[in-house]
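call fold(seq) -> tokens
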Amino acid sequence: MPFELFIGLRYLKAKRKATFISLITLISVAGVALGVMALIIVLAVMTGFEEDLKEKILGTNAI
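ret:
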């Protein structure tokens, strides 16, 4: 098992009486993952919109 995975799982696993803390950790990790996913999607959409807008503006100019 890689060292990084070992350390990550060690902090995510619940101990005997800390089930609630593990639940909070999983919800937090899922929230951060969802936020990062939303930011990546918004950046991709805005980049595509920017390229489309540039193409429309430059396409109307006669050279």
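The radius of gyration is 22 Å.
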